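note to self: dont lose this again. the chain is below, predicted strucutre after it. 137 aa total, dont forget to put it in the shared folder this time
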Amino acid sequence: MTSENSIAAKLDRLFHQVRGAGQSEVSYMAVADAIRREHGIAISHTYIWQLRTGRRDNPTIQHLRGLAAFFGVPVAYFLDDDEARKIDGQLELLRTLRDAQVTEIALRAADVSPSSRDTIGELVRQVWELERQRRTD
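---
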């Protein structure tokens, strides 16, 4: 069993959280190909699988940089547990918004004054905080 702060657990959370609405989890092959193509970092899909499953647990900083870039998080996500918790919260909010199909809210909010948009944003944040608190209690 891996710790929630391990590289494997953090990578697993990224695979679960970072994807488009209605899309399935990205494949190890797609991640490896993108990292090689976009960042010139040699990494295999098997190695990514090994990291995610905890079979390997000491990646190079170069591999962490490539994975972080692919998933759109700072390298600190993998190295700093406080930073990881903060980013996980942000990713959870994004996933919730994506899953809730907030497009309608966004489109309606675009046609109101800036101060009203700020109010709507604050209300959404407060509701999200309340829901998140209920889940942890």
